[in-house]
Amino acid sequence: MIKKSIAVLGLGKYGCSLAESLYSLGEDVLVADKNETVVRDMSPKVTSAVCANLDNEDEVTALGLQNMDIVITCMGGNLSASILSVAIAKEKGVPVVIAKASSDRMKMILERVGADKIICPEEEGGVRSARILTSQYIRDYFEIDENLCMIELQPKKAWIGKDLIELNLRKKYNMNVAAIKRQGGNWSYVDPSHKLREDNLLMIIIEKDDIDKWR
After folding, report:
1. Closest CA to 71 of 110, 124, 13
2. In order of start, what are the domains of the chain with their CATH numbers?
3. Are strands 70-73 and 5-9 parallel, antiparallel or unpaired?
4. Centroid of chain to Cα 51
5. Model pLDDT for residues 109-162, shown as the tens digit of each residue
6. Global model pTM greater than 0.90
7. How far apart are CA 16 and CA 31, in angstroms?
8. Most buried residue, 99, 124, 209, 215, by CB count within 10 Å?
9. Is 75 exposed, middle or buried (0-12, 13-18, 19+ CB in 10 A)?
């Protein structure tokens, strides 16, 4: 799998957790913050750590965000820095720009500036976000216990038009399909004879050790 280049801007508790999780999943991770102590502590835990004032346009521009596949702003308490970073990332053509918001108002503003997705830290932690960001199939992720997790999974293209009996996912992938829905619809129990559509999502129970199959 090709590594993604991901910039995490802002190293509070959430930003640090997210950056470490992304790096542990094998991604190239650049982090930036104005706190020299935090940057120094994070340096061995990521690909590159830079001390930068994220309220300063020149310093944000110097980070080279145009080389990133994903930019994530984690300055939930600093609206001006978040707006600046999102705007520069979009201007530089970054494919995916994600912003952390600490309020509904901040969420609305960052969406207007151009953020592709808003992260609400009250709803998802850094590890969970990392699982979702690094997979082309996983749309949501929840830990059940130390061994099992539940994931919201987008079907592979090869599955479209086939039913669950034919796919035999439990035997082939060691997973159980708990529920199914169409995007934007409600979850329902699974009809094994239902032929999967492109707009279907599956709720899967799977062992954590098997998660990397879906990256």
Report:
1. 110
2. 5-119 (3.40.50.720), 126-210 (3.30.70.1450)
3. parallel
4. 24
5. 999 999 988 887 655 556 666 666 667 777 777 766 677 777 888 899 999 999
6. no
7. 9
8. 99
9. buried
